[in-house]
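Now read the record:
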Amino acid sequence: MSNASPGPARQPRSVARLAAVQALYQMEVSGIGAEAVVREFREHRFDRDIEGATLASADEDFFAILVRGTVAAQVEIDAAITQRLAAGWPLRRIDATARAILRSGAYELTHMPDVPREVAIDEYVEIAKSFFAGPEPAFINGVLDAIARSQRSDG
């Protein structure tokens, strides 16, 4: 999960989204809770000098909202994602990194109406491209776009 790193050109919210995906992945594989992972990122990862290069600043509050909100709404988010999967294809069969991207993106699309949907989708597709060279970014785009369209028709 370490092959994507926020570069200095990234905007604070972009860094926060990438960090949220990494945190959600970490939580899933290690069993660490939301508050512990938020604290770890704030204390040890953001604005740190790594191998002589300072990482871009993250919008730490936005990061915390994404992580806490995704965890709090995970049952609802997982249901929204699962509705868009092929019949008989459970969410657990999707790569853990892709699941983290989908969950964070779905949370942002369904619970943060102040964020333009196109911006959120584009950001998560870019994150997917930093982890996957295959069909995953297009798959993630399709699922998030379907969730966004559903949201528009719901309200």
About this structure: The chain has one domain: 12-154.
